[in-house]
Specification:
This is DUF3883 domain-containing protein. By secondary structure, the protein is α/β, with parallel strands linked by helices. It has helices at residues 2-11, 14-22, 36-49, 61-73, 132-140, 159-168, 172-189, 197-210, 249-261; strands at 28-31, 54-58, 77-81, 86-89, 100-103, 121-126, 148-152, 216-220, 227-232, 237-242, 267-272, 281-282, 285-291. The chain folds into two domains: 24-168, 3-Layer(aba) Sandwich (Rossmann fold), CATH 3.40.50; 173-295, Trna Endonuclease, Chain: A, domain 1, CATH 3.40.1350.
Length: 297
Amino acid sequence: MQNRVEAESICLNPPLHELAAKSELNYHIHLSLDIKMEVIHFALRSIEWNKKRQIVIVCSQKDKDAYVGLLNSLGLVAKVKHESRWVWLKGADLAGAPSISFAHCPLGNEEALAGYCLHNLRFIASGDYLTTKALLVLKAGLTNKDNSLVTFGERNPDPKITEHWIKAIGAESKSLIDKLEALIGILRKGKYEFADEKVCQEYLEEHFTNLGLRFEREYRLSDGRSIIDFFFPNSGIGLEVKASKAWNKMGVYRQCERYCLNPEVTGLILATAKPQGLPEKIEGKPTRFYYLGENGL
């Protein structure tokens, strides 16, 4: 069970979602909320952190009907009005503003999203649905206390801002270090044959698969020439394995440096059959060393 918990901490990104739900900054970030229930859970967590919050979900009419259906299925709805666009949750002030509202922005009428100048108002908007103009209208409304905009879906309508605000709400460094340490913990739980590098990688692959981790083996990075032994796409952590005891330490360091120069890699672990130190950071990215000899068969 402990292994499963550690594995989930690498595969998922709850720290960022949770900190975004809690934060009172006027931020705009893009989250990987891949299914409608995840969008609803994020909205509910935002309200749990501050009962005064009102959520406006910007989506299509079809998606709105699906979201209202999900809220009903959870048994949380106390009242629905105005063609199901206003939803009051159980425990809310039924004479006050709705807990969750739905807004649409037909092409050419994006100004319909203007005018939400309220404290504690949070927009959650489908990146696949928003036009560039609609995004500008929403961002212009982030002027009062606890206003924020979270976009979701496959399309990030404004990727430049995401990295800035992730750092601002304090999620990046904390969650990434936690995930590096969690992966080291998972490595310690396995047993490996490291006389042959390919065999060792097969043991690692089996170990990760049994824990349900999402990973890519022999992953080609975006520079087109670097292939790292294991890559965990949800966190951006790379794992390089050197099972043989014969290699050039400087050559290995240069290889690690090349990986860390790639924007896909957020952190790196070097697992080797003989001790080799690494600096705490390479190119500004956190690194860890793991000695495979601790877990030899």
